[in-house]
Structures are given as C-alpha cells and as structure tokens.
Amino acid sequence: MEGPDTEESSRPTESRRAKAGKSSYPPSPEQRKLIMSPMGAHRRSMKALSSPSPFKDSPDGAAQSPSRLESLQCHFTWNLEATKSKMIRVRDELVDIGTDEGNVWLGHIYNLQGFIHYHLGFMEEARDFFSRATETFHQLGDADEAPCLLVNYGNLAWLHHHLGEDTESQAYLSKLDTLMEQSPPPIQDELHPEVCAEKAWTLMKFNKDKKLQAADYFQRAVRMKPDMVPWQTSRLLALVTRFKYENTDQDADVLEEMRMAREEDPDNRYLAAVDLLLRAKRGEQVQDEAHELEEKILMNPVSSYSGIKTLMRVYRELECYDEAVDLAEKALKKNPDVRYLKRCAALCYKWKIILFKESRPAQSMISRAISLHEEVISLYPHSCLLKEVALANVYAKSGQGLERAEQMYQEMMERDLEPADKQILYNCYGTSNHCFLPRRMRFLCLPSSFTSAAVNGFGGTFGLRFSERGNGTGAKSIVIGLLRPVTPQTSRLLALVTRFKYENTDQDADMLEEMRMAREEDPDNRYLAAVDLLLRAKRGEQVQDEAHELEEKILMNPVSSYSGIKTLMRVYRELKCYDEAIDLAEKALKKNPDVRYLKRCAALCYSWKIILLKESRPAKSMISRAISLHEEVISLYPHSSLMKEVDLANMYAKSGQGLERAEQMYQEMMERDLEPADKQILYNRYAKYLFYDRREYQRSIEYHMKAAEIPHPSFFQQNSINMLKKKIDRGRDRMCREIREFLENLPGSESL
Question: Do the beta carbons of residue 193 and residue 85 sit within 8 Å?
Fold first, then answer.
C-alpha cells in the first residue's frame, strides 16, 4: 500500500499525552518558532557544547573516540543502507509528513532528515536538521537529560567527527555519558525505550523487509513504557502494512489487534483508513464508513499522515474511482498549493484512466491528469520516476499519444539510473506496453539470466529482442516482445534466430522450415519478413528483388524500431548494396525528418559505406554527411552513444585528414570511467583502428589483449581473441610467443 510507511499518524489525543507523561508536548506556537528558528537551534547546540567533557583533557581522548562512536545507538550505526535515489525519495516523504504541532514524530523526522542530508553531501543542512531535532526533543523533556536526546546526541557526535570537529564530537560523547548515568534504561542490558521507538520508526522508512524488525523494536519499547499509545499503534501498522501491493490476508490475531487499537486510539485517522482498507481487501462493504471518515480527514488533509491517500486506496479497492478523484479535488480546493495533495490527485486520475475498463475516459479528464502529472513532476524533480512513468501511460491511453509515450519511455531508459530504478522502469514499460501499445509492440523486460527461460520456460510465447550490442554493452536486461498477436511458434522462432546478430551462423533446415511457416501464418509482420530475408541473404540467396518489395511496405510507417527497417538495411549490407541501404535511410528520413531512430539508422548505413566498402575512396560530401549525422545522433542519445562515438572517430580517420581528430576522440573515450563491457568494446574497436588506419600493428595487438582479458564474454572479446589467434597462425609477428602465452593464461583458455 502506498502512502506513509507503517508508523504513520500515531498522534495521541491530549488525554493520551497526559497519560504518557508528556505534558509539555506539543510545543506552544512560541516554542515552535524557537524550534524552527536556525538561531534557536544554534543556541541549543552551543548550550550542549558548553558542558564539560572528560575527553578534552584526556591525552588519549582522540584514540577513544572511534570505538566509542561505533558503540552508539544512532542513525550512523543502524546500517541504514539505501541508494541515492531511495534517500531522495525518503527525504521527500519526510517533507510531505509536515511539521505541524502535535506530530509526535517531529524530532525523529528532523533526525532522519539530518542523516539523509549528510549522505547526500549537504553538511550544513544536516547540521541544521540535527539542531532542530535537539530543540524538538528539549520540548519533550524537562531537562537536557531526557532519554529522547540519546539518538540525537549520537548523530551530532558522528557528524562533528566526520567534519573533523573532534572537540565538538567529544563534547557530545561526554553529554551522552552523563545522560546514561542519570537516566539508565528501565530494564538492564536493554536499550532505552525512546531509542527502541526511534530506531523502529526509522527502519520502517527504508524497506518493507525491515518492518518486522521495526515491529519488534516497537514491542520492546512498549514493554518498558506500556502507556505510549503511538508506539503501540505504530507496531501494529508495521505489521499490517508490510505488503503494500499485495492482497495478503491478515490473520485473526492481527485483525483483533486492529479493533483494539482503534478503540485505544480513536482519533487516529490514518489508523482508521488502514483498517478500512484491510476490510475492503477482505471483501467487506465499507463505503459508508469511508464517506464518514472522508469528512474527518478533509478537516486537515495536508499531511501524508492524515490518512487521505490510504482512504483513496479504499475507494480504489471498491472500484469507486470517481469518489477517489472527488476526494482529491475537494482536498485540493481547500489547499490548492500543497504538493502532496497534487501528487495524490494525480494518482487518482491515473487509476480512473488506466484501471477503469467500462468506458473510454473523457478528453477533459485526460487533460487534467496530464496537467497534474506534469506539475507533480516539477514539484518532485529528483524523485518523480514513477510519476513520469504514469504520465507516459496516461499519454498512451489518450488515443493519440502513443508516440509521445514511447518517446518518454525511451528518454527514461537512456538515463543513468540505479539498478533498482532500472528494474522499476523495465517492469512498468513491459506492463504498460502489454496493456496499451499496439499488440505488435508489446514488451516484457527480464534480467539477462532469463534468456533461455524466455525461449523454453515461456513456451515460445515471447520473442527475444536483444540489446543492440548483444552482450557487449553491459546491458542488464533483455527485452522480450510480442511483435504481433502471433503464434507461439513465431515468437519462439524470432528468439532463436536473432541470437547470433553478428555471426553468419547457419540455421538448420528445421528452423528455416519454421520460418517459412511463420511467414505464412503471419504474412503482415514486416519485422519477421526482414529477419527472413536477412537469414536467406546470409546463406547466399539473392533476395534483392524481395528486399525492394518489402522496402515499399516498410516505408509506409518506418518510425518504430519494430518496423523492420534496420533489419532490412542489414539485408542490403549483407548483399553489399550499401548505396541501397543509404537510399532507404534517406527516404525514411525525408518522410520523418525528426525521428531520431531513423537518424541513428542512417548514420549506421553511412558508416558501412565508408568503412566497409574497399573499392573506392568515399566522396568528401559523403563523409561530411556521415559526420553530421553521427554528431546529431550522439546529441540525441547522450547516455548511450559510445558505439556512435567510435563510429564517428572512424569517420574522421577515413576522411584522409582526420587521423589526429580520431586519435583525440579515442583517447578521450578511454579516459572515461566506463563499465567493463564498454571498455571491451572500445579496446576492440581501437585495436582495429590502430591496425587498419594507423598501421601501428604492435599497439593493435596490445589493445586486442586488453579487450580479451576483460572477463566479459561477448562478441567483441571473441573477436579480439580470434584476431590474436590469426597472428599466431601466420607466425610472422615477432610477438607470436607473447601472444601464445597470453592466450594460454587467459581464464577459460581451455575452451577457446
């Protein structure tokens, strides 16, 4: 389930605060001003530092500090491992909780914000948030020795240590010692309950796997302070919200605990919304109760702890999408500038447009959804990937926005995303294409380890589309796609025949017969037709007339990579008809001058003509056109253009006057921090450049060795190995002995 993670909105009533012995909380408006004021935070920090420290005059104080720091209970020692994008998402979630008075987690929020900002590299902001946490916790306790300060002082000790401010760090360690002496934990050898509670709350913010651990820490805290209702409520929420996107049945004990928690904490609207959602998932009709809760939530819906998003999910579970949208619009009407409510509203419109199957959404609704999503993306610029995905899907449902949706997905996939974000994107792309795009362009993204499973385990249902460089790009996924609503045989066949993109591997008779049958079964599939022609061209058949016939059909709509145009260009290459490949590219570009994919294809055709044709020197005008195209393509694919940069360097090398520019480009590429697979590609291509263009044969061998020794099986590694073996076979190179020893010592050499 989406929204605040498990701990949310555990806000005790005034009577509960008194019962919990926290009469000084929440702070008054004057106290709130002091807490939020940087000057107030600074005064508190100086007061903390003014306490005497036993380390100040200790000759070995500095030596004691690291081990002492490691023993602290605080964010820096809790193994809060998260990627940068995850940290940013949590940071934004904390902002959406708000800082209104009455939030018992306010000090915890500031502590976690400080830790996140430290890890994001914002040291002064980290210092400020930790100081705000100090101020907030001072309002909770009547003295500097309040146990709720333990985690905060530990964070400050670590922060000052990392900043090289050892005196300040030792001062906080001293204060921690004093605090522990004056306020020992209620149970010997146990953490303070306040520490347990804050650790539990913090763990829940990072991933669902830690929610059970968080529930355990809350249980330990409650055991020592049974009157703390927020801790009891949060423990239960940690248990019941572990499975956000699943309809996992809750056992009877948990449901009974939920009933008791609602009686114990009747004003907690987030808890009430979670209860309704659980019951709705069990099939109960809770619509009337949802309407009653809606009125209460709308009194103050601005915080992510208000329960509004969970109530929207109740309406979704009941398939009352209009009521979810109506709730969002009501909240926005009262609070038009609250970004969290705009995010919730965008979510509701997405549900209505994508999940509601009975009728096509009105254009006005689609326009409102697009507008909201665009605004939300601008309000969450560093944590908006899922909203960008949602926007692409809304465009896809608009009826006229498929091209825009595809463009958005391609732009997202070209970014340098973290693995977890790539996984999200590939999953959403596969799902969205399966639901929305034409059936000949459905995709499902799987890890590369699923290659054989795609062919065998899926029973031929899906066709494989390998990344453009095979295994040589370091790509972490293989896209598996249904090209059309075809038979399983066709998809299985495409998976098999496209495995060896760069090789002239003969296809056996059975496979060729399968191809013939597939074309009869699916006569309008132009991509399949192009693959068939390419296979036959590789076998030496003269398929030029059929290629011309297919060209006319493809040029009717060549803009997609699934049109078959690139494969048809490869047919012309196989036939050594480079001019016809270029002519096809230019025809497609003339009809569609702004389509970057066609520009990429055109650049490829020109590189074939210039680099592969040996009969004559290419004209200056052709080289100029090739260079211009490659430069434009590199700008259009800024994060996935290595091969095009290599090709551009080779264009310069072939120009007759550009060897110096080519060498400069290669050196610049080799200075980058590339992944091993990309380095392998670069070394292989540079070795060939050295051999053919610069006639530097020894350096060429050295770079083939560099490519071969990178432990990444690929076409490029094998190609470099083959080049080295040829040197040995010819026996004329003075490095033959060195090459032989190199190959013998190469890992896996026994299978070469």
Answer: no
